Amino acid sequence: MTSHESSLEYEGNRENENVKVPSIEEKHVNNMFANAASATAKEHKMTLLEGIKLYPKAIGWSILISSCCAMEGYDVSLVGNFYAFEPFNRKYGILGSDGTYQVPARWQSGLSNGAQCGQILGLILNGLCTERYGYRPVLMVCLVWLMGVIAIFFCAPNIQTLLAAEILAGIPWGVFQSIAINYASEVCPIPLRGYLTCYANFCWGWGQLIGIGVIRSMFDRDDQWAYRIPYGVQWVWPPIILIGVIFAPESPWWLVRKNRIEDAKRSLIRLTSAKRNPDFDVDETIDMIRHTTELEKEITSGASYLDCFKGIDLRRTEIVCAIWAIQNLSGNTFSNYSTYFFKQAGLDGTIAYDFAMGQYGINMAGTFGAWALMALGLGRRKLLLFGLVGLSISLFVMGFIGLVPDEHKHAASLATGTMMLVWAVNYQLSVGTIAYSLVGEISSRRLAIKTVALGRAAYNVVAIINNVLTPYMINPTAWNWGNYAGFFWGGSCLLCLVYTYFRVPEPAGRTFAELDILFERRISARKFATTDVNAFDPTLRHHFGGGKDGSAHVEEKETQSA
Fold first, then answer.
1. What's the pLDDT at 336?
2. Closest CA to 170 of 456, 372, 449
3. What is the Cα–Cα distance from 265 to 251, expressed in whole angstroms?
4. Which of 273, 417, 469, 552 satisfies CB 3.0 to 4.6 Å to 546 for a cystine?
C-alpha cells in the first residue's frame, strides 16, 4: 500500500468517526415530529364533511356530554320565570301592599347568586379533580350528586331551603360547563372543533325552552304541584346521561398528558371510524397530541392554577375570562328575566311566556345559524365583533322605547318584546354561541381545564353582580327602571366591543400547537389570522421552545390584517 493510499484510508476513518449516529431517543423524537407533521397537514386539508365521516362517534359522545349543560339552562329558565308565576310567588313570596304576592328582590338575587356561588366552587374543584382523575369519573360523581340535590328542590318547604338547593346544585353545573367544552375540543379535529364546542350553547337553549314550556303547561294549575312538577322534571336527565358517560371513551389528550399512550390510542380508535378514511393513522394523530403536549411543557411554567397567571398563559387566561364575562356584560342576565320584564311591561297572562318560549327557541336556532356563518368562512373574532355591534344597537333601542308615553304602553310593550327577540337573534348568532368555541380553543391543552374553569368562574362573578343589580332595575318596588335598563347594558356592550377589537384573536383553522406558538411570540390579536406558523421547525427537535431565544418560527403573511 502506498503512502497516498494509507493517507486516504486514514482520512476516511476519521470522517466515519466524526459522523454522529442518532441516538435511539433522537430517532424517537424525529419519528414523532414526522408523524405529528403528517397528522397536522391532514387536519388542515380535512373538510367539514370528511371530519364528520371520520369522527361520527366523537360527535355522538361530545353531544352526549354537552347535554349536561341543558340542566343548568333548565334551572336558569325556572328561576327567572318563576318570579312571574303566581303559585310560586304565593308559596315563597310575601304579600305586597297591592294585594299580590312577590318574591322580594333580595331573595331573587339570593336564589340566582346561590347557584352562581355553587358553580364557582364546582369550577375550582373541577380544575383539580378532572386533571387528576379524568373527565368520566368526575362527570359520573356529579350526576349522582345532582340526583340527590333535586330532591331538595322538590321538597323545599321555604325559600331558604331553595337557596341551599341552588348552591348545592351549582357545584355539578359548574363542572358540566367546563368539561363539556374541553371534552368537545379534545375529541374532534380542527374542522369540527368550532361546531362541537358551540353545541353546548344549543343545549343551554333547549334546557331553557323545556323549562319555560313546563311552566307554561302548569299555567292552569293553582296548587303546589304547579311548581313542584317543574322541579321534579329535572330527574329525567341525570340517569340517562350517566348511563352514556359510563361507556364513553376518555379524552386521548388527557391520557397522553398522563403518559398512557396505549390507552390514548384505544380511546382515539373508539372516537373514529378509520375505515371511512384510509389516510387516517392513529399513531400519527397520537404523536401530534404528544408533540403539542411536549411543546407546552417547554413554553409554559407548569400545570397549576397559579401557572395560569404566569408568562404567556396570563394573556390566555385574561382573554378566556373576558370572553365569558362579555356574555353577561352584553345584557344576558337582563334577558333571563324576560318573562318577568314582559309582565311588568304590561304583557299579561300567557303572552309573556309565549314571548319567552319564542326567545328560547331562537336560542337553539341561533346556534345553527352561527354554524352556518362559520361554514361560510366567517371567523370567531368577526362574529364576536359584529354581534356586539348588533347587541348594543338593540339594547339602546329598548332603552329609547321607555320614552314612549303611558297611553301607548301596550304598543311599547309589544315593541319591547320584539326587540328582545331581535337581541336574542344577535346574541345567539355571535356572543352566546361563539364564546364556547373561543374559550375552548384559546386555552393551552395543558392548562385548558383550569383556564376554562377560571373563565367560567369570572362569568359567574359577573353574573352574581348582575343578579344583584337586575332585579332592582326591573322590580317596580325597587329602582323601577323598566326599559331604561337597556341604556345601562348598551353602554356596557360598547365597552366589550372595544376590548374585543384589541384583545381577542382569531383561532379558527389553527392546531393547538400553532396557537401555542402564536401566543408565545406575543402576536397581536389583530394579526393572528394572517401569521404563518411552523410548528415543526427543525430546532424544535432539540428544544421545543425553538431557537436561541427559545421561540418557535413564525412569519407574517404579506396580506392585510384581519
1. 61
2. 456
3. 10
4. 552
Say whether 187 sits in a helix, a strand or coil: helix
Listing DSSP states for 305-322 in one string gives TGGGGSHHHHHHHHHHHH
The b-or-e profile of 333-353 (16+ CB within 10 A means b, else e) is bbbbbbbbbbbbbbbeeebbb
- Cα angle for residues 292, 295, 297 (degrees, 5° grid): 110
End-to-end CA distance of the chain: 72
Would you say 357 and 370 are in contact if contact means Cβ atoms under 8 Å apart?
A: no
| Spatial separation of the C-alpha atoms in residues 398 and 345, rounded to whole Å | 12
Cβ 298 vs Cβ 544: under 8 Å: yes
Residue 19: which residues within 8 A CB-CB, separation 6 or more? none
Tell me which amino acid residue 524 is.
Answer: S
Q: Which residues contact 113 (CB under 8 A, 6 or more apart)?
A: 463, 464, 467, 468
Of 43, 66, 73, 37, the C-alpha closest to 55 is 43
What's the one-letter identity of residue 532? D
Q: Which three cell numbers stand for residue 482?
A: 323598566
The crossing angle, in degrees rounded to 10, of helices 159-187 and 135-155 is: 160
CA distance 296 to 306: 16
Which secondary-structure segment (H or E) carries 540?
none
Using alpha carbons only, give the angle 116, 118, 119 rounded to the nearest 5 degrees: 65
Radius of gyration of the chain (CA): 27
The strand pairing partners of 531, in sequence order, are: 556
Question: In angstroms, rounded to a whole number, what is the distance separating the alpha carbons of residues 174 and 273?
Answer: 32
Lowest mean pLDDT among 333-347, 363-377, 476-490: 333-347
Query: Is residue 251 helix, strand or coil?
Result: coil
Taking each continuous run of H as one helix and of E as one strand, the counts in the chain are: 25, 4
* Torsion region of 561: left, alpha or beta (phi above 0 gives left; psi -120 to 50 gives alpha): beta
Measured in whole angstroms, the distance separating CA 425 from the mean position of its chain's CA atoms is 19
Output the CA torsion 206→107→331→320 (10° steps): -80
Helix segments in 19-134, DSSP class H: 24-45, 48-54, 56-66, 69-82, 86-92, 105-133
Phi and psi based region of residue 94 (left: phi greater than 0; alpha: psi -120 to 50; beta: remaining): beta
Q: State the CB neighbour count (10 A cutoff) for residue 298.
A: 15
SS3 per residue for 383-433: HHHHHHHHHHHHHHHHHHHCCCCHHHHHHHHHHHHHHHHHHHHHHHHCHHH
Q: State the CB neighbour count (10 A cutoff) for residue 378.
A: 17
Lowest-confidence pick of 143-147, 196-200, 462-466, 520-524: 462-466
pTM over 0.90? The answer is no
Q: What are phi and psi of 322, to 5 degrees?
A: -65, -40
Least confident of 71-75, 125-129, 130-134: 71-75
Contacts of 220 (CB under 8 A, 6+ apart): none
Burial class (CB in 10 A: 0-12, 13-18, 19+), 229: middle
CB 335 within 8 A of CB 420: yes
Position 248: which residue type?
Answer: A
533 strand-pairing partners: 554
Nearest-angstrom CA–CA distance, 297 and 516: 11
